[in-house]
Amino acid sequence: MAILLREPDNARARPTSLIKRQSGYERVFSESTTLEIYFKCAKIMKRLDRFLRGDLPAYSDQEKNNLKFHIAMVAVIFLLGSSYSVKDIESISDSEVDAKALSEALATTVSLAQQFSSKQDWTIERTAKSRDFVKYTLANTQSIETLFKR
What we know:
Blueprint: H1 8-13, H2 22-28, H3 35-52, H4 61-80, H5 99-120, H6 124-128, H7 131-139, H8 141-147
Helix pairs in contact: 3-4, 4-5
C-alpha cells in the first residue's frame, strides 16, 4: 500500500480495510503487477525494518514505528522520482536500498512530519495516519528529490 499506491497513511492506520472490498483488493493485487514488484516491496520493507531496529538515538521509537510506511514511500521517491510507476519499482536494485538511502529517507520524513505536526498541533501518530500528511509529503517531493541526488 505504502509503496505501490503511495498510501502510507492507510498502511499505518487501516492496513486491512483496503483489501476487505474486492475493488480495494484488486488495487493492491492487480493482475498486471508482477510478483517481482511485490518481492521488491517486501525486500524494501524488510531492509527498512532492520535499519529502524538499529542504533538510531536521534529518533524516538514513536517516530520510527509510526512513520515506517512513509519512510518507505519517501525512499522509493528518492530512488525513482516522484512520478514513479508501479513497473519502475522492478528497477530498484538491492544495493540502492542501502543505509544512506534509508537514513536520508528517515531524516526527511521525520522532518516533514515534525513540521506538519507542529502546524496542526497533532501527535506524530495522528500525522502518520493522515492523508493530509501524505499530500504534504508529496507536495514537497521536489525538495525531497533535490536533497537526494546520488
